[in-house]
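Name: Lactonase family protein
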Amino acid sequence: MKLLIGGYTKKKATGIYELPLYNSKKGLEVELGDAREVIKVGGPTYFVQDGDLIFTINNAGDKGGISAFQLVNGAYQEKDSNLTPGSSPAYIGINRKDKLLYTANYHTAVLAVFSYTDEGKLSLIDSVTHTADTLGPKPEQADGPHPHFFDQTPKKNLVSCDLGNDCVDFYRLQDNHLEHLAKYQNEPGFGTRHIVFSPDGNYFYVVGELSSKVNVVKFSESDWTFTSIATYSTIPDDFTDHNGAAAIKISHDGKFIYVSNRGHDSITVFAVKDDHTLQLRQRVSTFGEFPRDFNWDESEQFVVATNQNSDNATLYKRNAKDGCLTPIQKDIYVPEGTRVLFSE
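Structure predicted for Lactonase family protein:
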């Protein structure tokens, strides 16, 4: 098993790094080895994988977009790129069955859908641009809409999270055209960033970057009704320094929610009760600064969080019964990491 980590390339980093995960000889169950660069690319702050293909954000100077790389004879080769003037997207999602990619551009407010081939050829299908309909009161929201997430819903519609407008928007891709279906409005200043869904598809959990909160919402993809159940803070009540909540994950069994905190520098663990309300289970340090992303292996036994500002990552063992994380390896060197992916 191996891990891929990418992020900003403003200081020491130059692309996407690969780290082996192997059985440890130091008394630990597993251990991460040294990071080595496998793809040279600008600002791979988010990327996804389909077999031997990796699709990544690409910050190419005065242009930004996405690029496709394919593993050929043990090395990744660039196969195609779609770059436009201006900033690169913040998020890229994937539909492997239909060979589609979904991007959200925080700076330009553009959501886009691409198709791809087995050889990594990219084609733009459609795009929409968010407008300043419900801008929040925070300084980070004053300059316009900021979509930060665009991916599939349980019923294969599409969903975006807009930090500037404090909202969740739902779309359908019909005849290669994006059609807006519904909107859920978070409280002003929430800073809607990322979203996950319950296994039964009847609830979603949306994290607010600016508010450091998780909002639990019951909803229907049949008639687009929404009911806010409760909202929970990801940080302690007495924490007064700046914090920006970032990534959110839900376990496959739907019993636990995990959120990273940039500022408090921790991962918050919530247990999901039978009525879908949350119960705080743990706040565990990431042993570094500014953890934007974290992820787990397919079995959800091991979790890795990467710290963007301190150039290091932490490996945890996850307890499936209580959801808690136990750090087993710290200070793993990875420069400017923002995206974590256990490789196929």
